[in-house]
Write a structure and sequence with these properties.
The chain has 395 residues and is an alpha/beta fold. It contains 16 helices and 13 strands. Helix 2 packs across helix 3. The two termini are 36 Å apart.
Length: 395
């Protein structure tokens, strides 16, 4: 990504701060430019759009960043227009004071809506726009494991969706909510920062709460959610001790809770939840997890082999009696062996899923290798994980 025109950021005035309200003609032209760029991003299947003063807009397509050179380099006045176009006065005040802001917008005549993060870098306003279809995805369209449909109709318990940032956790949650909306009769409360997918009531009543606009924090939203007659709680991220504690309590008290964590696999997710608590509470939390946890789904997003698009690869761990005992007895490292030997019960390690996707021709061996887990964790793996890659995939 090389821009033909190079700007020295320090030589530009910060028009966003100096001129918060633009002239009508300039605002109109910049508004048209912003919308045209977003339309091009949607038509190019870009997942993210980066706006940074001094550079052409940058699209992320199938995980790869590339400059959109058909547009002019971004200026401070362009970014000021973005703020005027997408933020109300309260949000702009928050952005000035805190130097960063999350929000989401739906635009007329667009098939996608946008989750936006505004932030300052080098004293200039920048923005990253995440593009999501207005129509929520389905389990079938995303190719989610069959286990997902079973999890969506559970009466109660805790289900964790894990993965790195940008691995598609929010999209997976949206597909689960969409499935429940068509197959259950329930009150679903979603807690997001910000809302990415908007759901209309079908068979369910869906209350969507956004941090900032509708609630002050995940923990406070979870605390009051139990008074709002919920059947299902969908929490886009449990980040701290209080929100994790509230999620466990909700699952214990007869609610189905879906939540996301930033961990690489199922066992790490269990350990992360337990390790958040002080040592003197961890035994009780292990007992709670053993009683309430129903499944952990870990996912990674990889480029599709030989064509546009990306593929989600899943590690699946429905919780069985042996796994409950290992959680309670603080023997979580042995869970890897349970997963590897119980595929018939819907379990699959990331390693096995990667091998399967390579054999099916969905991803390349090189991409799979980059995500391969340390097989020394598994007693049934005889060789070191640095074995030749052809042997690894049985090819």
């Amino acid at each position: 990504m090389v821009d033909d025109t190079i700007y020295i950021l320090g030589d530009q005035t910060n028009e966003f701060q100096d001129q918060p309200s633009q002239q009508a003609g300039s605002l109109s032209q910049n508004s048209n430019d912003v919308l045209d760029i977003l339309k091009n991003a949607v038509s190019s299947n870009a997942s993210d759009i980066h706006f940074q003063v001094g550079s052409h807009p940058i699209f992320r397509i199938d995980g790869v960043l590339s400059s959109f050179v058909q547009a002019k380099p971004v200026t401070s006045s362009f970014m000021a227009c973005c703020a005027d176009l997408f933020l109300n006065e309260k949000q702009k005040k928050h952005l000035f004071e805190h130097r960063q802001l999350d929000c989401s917008v739906t635009l007329p005549n667009f098939t996608h809506r946008f989750r936006i993060n505004f932030f300052f870098q080098r004293n200039h306003l920048s923005g990253v726009f995440r593009s999501n279809p207005i129509i929520p995805p389905t389990i079938e369209h995303l190719g989610l494991p069959p286990l997902m449909e079973k999890l969506a109709v559970l009466p109660h318990g805790l289900v964790l969706i894990t993965g790195a940032t940008g691995s598609g956790k929010s999209t997976t949650l949206a597909a689960l909510v969409n499935y429940m909306n068509h197959h259950r009769n329930a009150h679903i409360i979603t807690i997001s920062d910000p809302i990415e997918y908007v759901h209309k009531n079908k068979r369910c009543v869906i209350s969507q709460r956004e941090i900032g606009n509708d609630a002050t924090s995940f923990a406070s939203a979870l605390r009051v959610a139990l008074r709002e007659d919920p059947n299902v709680l969908v929490v886009e991220e449990i980040r701290d001790l209080e929100s994790i504690s509230m999620a466990l309590t909700a699952a214990e008290t007869g609610h189905l809770v879906f939540a996301t964590l930033h961990t690489n696999d199922a066992v790490q997710a269990i350990n992360r939840v337990i390790d958040v608590f002080p040592p003197h509470q961890q035994f009780q939390v292990r007992v709670q997890m053993a009683m309430t946890l129903r499944a952990v789904i870990s996912q990674v997003l990889l480029k599709k082999k030989g064509g546009p698009g990306r593929v989600a690869v899943f590690e699946t761990m429905p919780v069985t009696t042996p796994i409950r005992h290992l959680i309670r007895d603080n023997q979580t490292v042995q869970i890897y062996n349970v997963i590897s030997t119980n595929r018939a019960q819907g379990m699959m390690l990331r390693n096995d899923a990667l091998k399967e996707y390579v054999v099916r021709g969905l991803i390349t061996k090189e991409d799979a290798e980059a995500c391969f887990m340390d097989t020394s964790l598994f007693q049934n793996e005889q060789q070191n994980w640095r074995r030749p890659q052809d042997d690894r995939f049985g090819l």
